[in-house]
Write a structure and sequence with these properties.
Length: about 140
């Protein structure tokens, strides 16, 4: 229940903090839109889990925090944050997706390369072309 309460508090903090930023409109989302939305989702999920825990429907399973996949994804995310601006959006997202596909799936090298390239290009088109969000191209260009 302590973790559920912490997640509830984190979600509530995100909702409150997002109110300090312009949320924009549906067609033109501001910087506070997604943090507020994700915070509200986290509050809702933690409420459901808390109610299940109080009603005795929760499981006794423990989460293994030392699992290799969990730590490698955390490491890849930190690495993504470090390389994002210097090498640009598409190469960094492509490497991130490739690493996670290779680690978590049984796909071969060629399929991982094709899917990561397609994912990076699709994400770029979505954010840059559709939403109009300028993305870093990298310092090397």
């Amino acid at each position: 229940m302590i973790i559920i309460a912490a997640l509830f508090g984190l979600g509530l903090f995100c909702v409150i903090a997002s109110r300090m930023m312009p949320s924009g409109q549906f067609g033109e989302m501001g910087p506070g839109f997604f943090p507020g939305l994700l915070g509200a989702i986290l509050v809702g999920i933690s409420l459901v889990l808390g109610i299940q825990g109080l009603l005795g429907r929760a499981t006794d399973k423990r989460v293994e925090l030392g699992h290799r996949d969990a730590w490698s994804i955390i490491g890849a995310t930190v690495f993504l944050a470090i390389i994002f601006k210097p090498i640009g959006f598409m190469p960094s997202i492509g490497l991130f997706v490739f690493f996670n596909l290779k680690l978590l799936s049984r796909l071969g090298w060629i399929k991982c390369i094709i899917l990561s390239a397609a994912g990076a290009v699709s994400a770029y088109l979505f954010f840059d072309s559709l939403l109009g969000i300028p993305l870093p191209m990298g310092d090397w260009l």
